């Protein structure tokens, strides 16, 4: 891989971008340097208490208004509860739904229902801001995600683009004010680009990036289509909120644990482990926060916070959301 940046602060920036690999990749040790030259700086997530989980000890950040107006109407929690009761009472003949299936089907209903989700989210484009934790302080930038749904979650076409503001010290040293980074899964493999030039993502980055396809709140909404197994673990109170905990297992054996609000049937948190080439197996936790927006009759969490092994990694806040988006499949094959 071509080494294009050598200033220590910029190298730290590069490591942060590649280590976090855009919206949901796990933090990897900087000594690995993710395919680039190593330096004396190390990249660390910023520790925060689990109850805080948003990393706001470092810096409070106002949530920008979501520009999209609500389109349609998603079921209210009371409607979801009535749907759950209906599922439990009206089963007759054939295979009955298990309590776990009733719970998950109620979650799917709360997010808009299976037919509506499948139609609205066949292609999506989400834009917003991203905040990434590094040893030298937070990095801030813009974030764009584009996705075309295929038969299975792990087959989806998936692309994320970041434009990160360069730290002032690096700018004063003559580096560009912004760094652009693209990573894409084209249905067969992962490719990346840095400042509009193709690069070969390191294995750690590729693994972390691809994990987003199957370790996401939408993975539970597509459990039946993916052929995933679901298992109810039981109730758990998280920061005063009653939840139901369940495990989802993909056909390849990968697991994701979900915490679901017992009141609203919204997915509050998920956790999964990822095996890295260096032999470590970090635990990644993603939490979903209000405000929720209704887009084409489906419910969308607009604030998403990621932690690794209890340390804040990144936060994404959406401010533009388009479903049934007109996406050119070529964007998943090459730049731009």
Helix content: 10-25%
Q: What's the domain count?
A: 1
Morphology call: globular
Give the ordered list of helices and strands: HEHHHEEEHEEEHHHEEEEEEE
| Total beta strands | 14
Fold-level CATH name: outer membrane lipoprotein receptor (LolB), chain A
Name the CATH class. Answer: Mainly Beta
Low-pLDDT runs of 5+ residues are 1-65
Supply the CATH architecture: Clam
- Characterize the main sheet: 14 strands, antiparallel
**Annotated CATH homologous superfamily:** Lipoprotein localisation LolA/LolB/LppX
Going by helix content, strand content and strand pairing, the class is alpha+beta
Computed over alpha carbons, the radius of gyration is 20 Å
**Whole-number mean pLDDT:** 81
Total DSSP helices = 8
**Beta-strand percentage?**
25-35%
The termini sit apart by 20 Å
Element layout with pairings:
Blueprint: H1 8-20, E1 46-47, H2 77-89, H3 99-110, H4 114-120, E2 123-132, E3 139-148, E4 157-165, H5 168-172, E5 178-185, E6 190-194, E7 197-199, H6 203-214, H7 217-221, H8 223-226, E8 229-238, E9 241-249, E10 255-261, E11 267-273, E12 283-295, E13 298-308, E14 311-323
Antiparallel strand pairs: 1-14, 2-3, 2-14, 3-4, 4-5, 5-6, 6-7, 8-9, 9-10, 10-11, 11-12, 12-13, 13-14
